[in-house]
Design a protein that fits this description.
The chain has about 140 residues and is α+β, with helices and mostly antiparallel strands. The protein contains 3 helices and 6 strands, in the order βββαββααβ. The protein has 2 domains: about 1-40, N-terminal domain of TfIIb (Single Sheet); about 40-139, K homology (KH) domain (GMP Synthetase, Chain A, domain 3, 2-Layer Sandwich).
């Protein structure tokens, strides 16, 4: 994997992924930014949520579950001192579908947490307390 981050001005940077996609990162106005882009630590949360959600949906589809939606709410707490690292991270999945098996949903979340999601496993190995929860919504 490869990425490039280029400084634009003030607190604004452009990040480009190896696959050619670009994202604007910026800081709040109080820190010299213009508040026109996502913060780098927010990107970490989104990355963790995306990585784990991809796993959960894929596992459920392979289990022949009729999944129609998956939203992950990712919340974190950060240390009060510098560096303000994540101390806790929770991924709460809202999985919708028709006749979803709770056993399959629970297993998909567990497999993502314990085996497949590189992002959350890396954070957990770095000392972040990562937790997962879910709810099933019948369509």
């Amino acid at each position: 994997m490869k990425a490039t981050v280029r400084w634009v001005d003030n607190a604004m940077f452009l990040g480009e992924s190896g696959s050619g996609h670009t994202v604007v990162m910026d800081g709040p106005e109080a820190n010299g930014g213009r508040n026109v882009g996502i913060r780098p630590m927010e990107m970490l949360l989104i990355g963790a949520g995306g990585c784990s959600s991809f796993d959960v949906v894929s596992i459920l589809q392979k289990s022949r579950q009729d999944v129609t939606g998956c939203d992950a709410e990712v919340t974190a707490t950060r240390a009060d001192a510098v560096p303000a690292v994540f101390e806790t991270l929770n991924l709460h999945f809202r999985i919708s579908g028709r006749n979803l098996s709770e056993k399959h949903v629970e297993r998909a979340v567990e497999l993502s947490a314990d085996k497949y999601c590189s992002a959350t496993i890396m954070l957990a190995n770095g000392g972040v307390k990562v937790t997962h929860s879910y709810e099933i919504i019948e369509d």
